[in-house]
Amino acid sequence: MRITDIEIKNFRAFPKTYEINPNKAGKNLLVYGENGSGKSSLYLVLKYFIESGLDINDESNKSNDFESHQNIFVKDPGHIKLSFGADPQLQKDTYEWSKTLIETTDELIIETAKACGFLDYKDLLGVHYLQPEGKAVNVFDLLVEKLLANTINPVTARTLAEAWNDDIQGPYPRRDAKHRITALEQRIAVFNDELANRLEELRPKVREILDKFGYKVDLDLDFQGITYNHRNKTLDNQQKLLNVKFFDKDVSKQYLLLNEAKLSAIAISIYLSSILLLPEPKSGLRILALDDVLIGLDMSNRFPVLDILEDYFKDYQIFLMTYDKAWYEIAKQRLSEKNWKYTEFYFKATDEHELPVCKEDTPYLKKAEEFLDENDYKACVIYLRTTFETIIKKFCDKRNLRVRYCENPKKLDTNDFWEPIKTGTKNDGSAFLDDQLITKIEQYRTCILNPLSHASIVNVSRREIEDTIKAIEELEAALV
Amino acid sequence: MSKPLKGFITYSHADTKAKDELTTRLAMLRSEGMIDIWHDNEITPGKKWRDAISRSLADSDLLLYLVSKNSLASENCNKELAKALTEKTRIVPVILEDCDWLHHELSNFQALPDEGKPIIKWEDKSEGWQNVVSGIRKVIHEMQPYSAGTKKESKYYKTDSNEFQAELAFQYGNALLMLGQIDRAIEVYSYAIERNPYAVHIYNNRGEAYRIKNEIDRAIEDYTEAIKLDLELVEAYNNRGVAYRNKGEIDKAILDYNRAIELNPNYAEAFVNRGTAYDSKGDFDQAIANYNKALTLNPDEPVTYNNRGVAYLGKGNVKQAIENYNKAIRLKPDYANAYYNRGEALLHLSEWKKVKVDLIAAKDMGTDIVAAFRNDYKNVEAFEKRHLIKLPEDIAFLLTQRRRIRFPKKQKAFNTNRMPLESPNVVNLREQLRHAGIPLGKYIKTKPAFGINTTPTEVFVIDKTTRNKLIADHPSSTDILKPYLHGKDLRRWHVSTQQQWLIFTHRQIAINDYPAILKYLEEHRGPLSKRKGKQEWYELQASFSDAERFAQAKLVCPNVYNHHTFAVDTAGYFYGNTAYLIPTEEKWLCGLLNSRTVEWFYSQVSKQLTIDPLRARSGYIQQIPIPDLTSEQKALIGKIVDYLIYLQQQPTINSKDLAHARDRIMLGYFERIIEGLVYEAYLREELHASDKYFLQPLLEEQLPPIEDIKGDKMSVCRDIFELLYERTHLVRRNLYYLDSVKPVRIIEGKL
């Protein structure tokens, strides 16, 4: 079962009605959006919708109150509707969440809520305030309040955050209230057991995932258990609660100190592991949404995340949001179109209100054809050129073809990629492309696929363009 | 003429003069041989007072209750009344002075003088008395034909006509209802209805009994039946309205009140109820109009003023609201809810000192002010945001839910009269559970009961040193030194010795056979002989048969506990009255009773909904429904209970060492498995509809009974745990997603 349609009306950044379709087949969604474009609102739409039925008595549950999320510019009551379907051919079920109608207490949504992962960059901000002490760092707050906050105790069926906030926080009993102190200490013991056990369960998985990041480290989550100090009415042992220790086997790699990138990687690994340990719901629908969580990582650490997603989260429907356009483009190349759909959010100021615009990222060639249908030759040609560039760049990358080095990659032009393909050969010695196709491409390159075409006045015939499209299609087929 | 009726006068000694006046005036009736009056002045010296009273009451036909503020407050008077009610004696209240008798059980009887006008209010008192006497004469005449022979048979069984029997049963049912024996009352009413299926008022009263029992649907059925038989039965409409409101069906309630008012335009109560219904709909103007009307009909009803205050506050008219609350409090100075309401209203005027006084007053009188405030405003922050008033810290603190919230979290809502108003979800689920099995009281053969009274406990319960010394002094001591547990020593599943013993000197013990004990008790003779009761100074208030009660297999729980805490006791411990004992050999019942489902049901029916610890109440515990399971299924639960009993005794489980955290998780996980099994037992259809099974997958695992495990039992337990805990195991998955099932969500406090 997958999410197939998302309809948003007057919710947070979305005035009016929006439909975002992770495709009829319920694909994963890669979203690019500028700041304020509604990208994070989409993340919250999913998160709050799914969690809204969980505990309707709990006031701290932000998902409880649809009204507070109403778009501030529009009075008209809003709603969110999500459709779920197992098979594009089959009927799908739509659930609504609005001020007046709460259908999210349905079994399907609740089970989904208990099986999904939502992590955003704010959850990881704590990483930046951690003060490593040598090779150890206290990640207690980060763990209890963010990363493991929603993990559910198999015994009490309550979340770690509930146990932490409801059972253990003050006001603490008077010093002479023995029974109450005993009761508090019992609750602390339950919490300690749960956290200690949880960390023990996580440990192998976390290590496995960290390994994917290329960190050959042993992670020691060393939890001593908190204790209650009834003299001072404080919780003790919290400061030295959790030490992340790196035991690197290779002494020469002492440079592996705890920097932010590594801490981010550890945090992400812990979070993803905790999700992976959950039992699978009957519907099979599990969601993982990551909103800009990779911003703390440099490029080299982001690729492993994509690998991890593809290896471990195959059965999940993934929503990946980012404001980093370059990263978005790279991720697009990397993530197969079969499972992924790409969407971009832009921000458009209008007279009335700020309006996010989302556009689905269809393949360039298809866009070119659409513009051709609309007789917008200029736009069509731009997309054709982009398609051409994408194809040849991708091919060079895949085959490790030697490309002219250039300090500023923007100075590379299509010729730098085209030449190696034109002249290159396969392992068996045969050429990549036959001469006829090369001639065709070269012919159109000069007039249509010319890099400067977008600046000059387009003066080409429809016939020419159609031929070019055919040629590009041929080229794409040849260079698979 | 048959022999005289026996009459009995219940009165407070402060009213002796009035009693004398009455007996004098009854002289005529006495001489006519119609009545023989007995009152407690006539106890001959030396006779034991209580026995005498109890015996005379038992064969009295008529009880004259002299109603005054003194007699209402007197424990003895009320005991006599209770006794009379159980003996089915005819009761006639004689109102001496103004007092709160209308809120007393007595209000259900035809009172004298006529219309309940108190004697002291008659300008000519002797006229008042005369009214009483002629009233009594009438009553005696009514009773005379049936009083011959043994009273009880004639009253209840021997007369031929069904209608008459129904009527008698009806009266008896009313008496039981007043005494709070609701189940018994319902039985008797049902008997009455069998005799006379056309007696409207019986349906109405049985409906009332069901409503008190919170079986709303049945109550509504009965009222509807009553209405069917008599389309103009005003009370039934009103009562059905109240039942609908409790169910949350406000519109239906209003329709019923409308009808009641149509039939009797002077029916103040119906106006008040209709006002309340409109209030819960948010239609404050209509509500106020209704209360106004009610007040013109019945001007001194504090509830109406209180409710009108609520409606005014709803309209935002704070000053008017406060005036109404003032009036309500003036009429009824111990009206807790009115204090809370006034405090709440004063919040809007920022009169903090007054607010605090009122809130504390309400709290002291037993109102759960935190829950009430939550019901109105969610929390302090929400209130501040909505009304743009910043509450001072001390008041905010008063109104803040303490951190730890009792499970189930908050199912408490209040109607405008600040009585708990239950959501239909809760009411319906509770009734569903109630019918999911036969009550525990019927399921087990022997009656459950509390332990024995061991006061002074510090004398009768001794530690190891004393015990050894007593045995050393004389070996016979061993026979009556019994291993003993207090309620507070009990934990779930397993009872373990606390190294303390009870000196079991039951009644009629041959104390001289135990010289060491006698000598020990002699040292404490002071406190021992201060005790009340008939026992000898060295005896416990327990009989020899109590020993048998303790010797058999039983489930035990403390009388006060936070979560259901039953343990299996097959070791024959003795208990004081701080423990509750259910004699049974079926260990699986322990698993059932410790489940959240049962805890939820119990707290609902016994109305213990706040975060305070629960108290064991025998009547309600016996109502717990026992679902119908196959012996195989019971054995499965029993097996896991055995695991838990075993685990509970293991050192790693009792330590706090985090290295053994997983063992303790194991214990909790097995408890959770029982939780799942019990949910399935009670809510089979719902769980199966959502594909959640526990019984079947666990039966298929063929878990070994704990006693069959050879060698290292702990490691086998761990293996079983790891197997069932595996994230792909059906049991684990079903437990994890258990609360997606609606009734489970209600029980776990999430819906």
Q: Which features would summarize this protein structure in a list?
A:
heterodimer, A: 480 residues, four-stranded antiparallel beta sheet, 14 helices, 40% helix, 16% strand, B: 751 residues, alpha/beta, Rossmann fold, 40 helices, globular
Strand content of chain A: 15-25%
Largest interface: A-B, 39 and 39 residues
Can you give the helix content of chain B as a percent range? 55-70%
Q: Assign the CATH class of the domain at 5-148 in chain B.
A: Alpha Beta
Rg over C-alpha atoms of chain B, rounded to the nearest angstrom: 30 Å
Give the second-level CATH assignment, the architecture of the largest domain in chain A.
3-Layer(aba) Sandwich
**What is the mean pLDDT of chain A?**
78
Describe the protein.
The complex is a heterodimer of chains A (480) and B (751). Chain A is 40% helix and 16% strand. Chain A is of the alpha/beta class and 480 residues long. Chain A has three domains: 2-122 and 284-360, Rossmann fold; 131-257; 364-478. In chain A, the strands form four sheets. Chain A has a six-stranded mixed beta sheet with strand order 6-11-12-3-13-14, sandwiched between helices. Chain A has a four-stranded antiparallel beta sheet with strand order 2-1-4-5. In chain A, helix 10 runs antiparallel to helix 14 (462-478), helix 11 packs across helix 12 (414-423) and helix 11 (377-399) packs parallel to helix 14 (462-478). Chain B has a five-stranded mixed beta sheet with strand order 8-17-13-15-11. In chain B, helix 9 (182-195) runs antiparallel to helix 10 (200-212), helix 16 runs antiparallel to helix 17 (318-331) and helix 16 runs parallel beside helix 18 (336-347). Among the domains of chain B are: 5-148, Toll/interleukin-1 receptor homology (TIR) domain (Rossmann fold), CATH 3.40.50; 445-583, no CATH class; 631-747, no CATH class. In chain B, a hairpin with a 5-residue loop joins strand 5 and strand 6. Chain B has 751 residues and is of the alpha/beta class. Chains A and B meet through helix 2 and helix 6 of A and helix 35 and helix 39 of B.
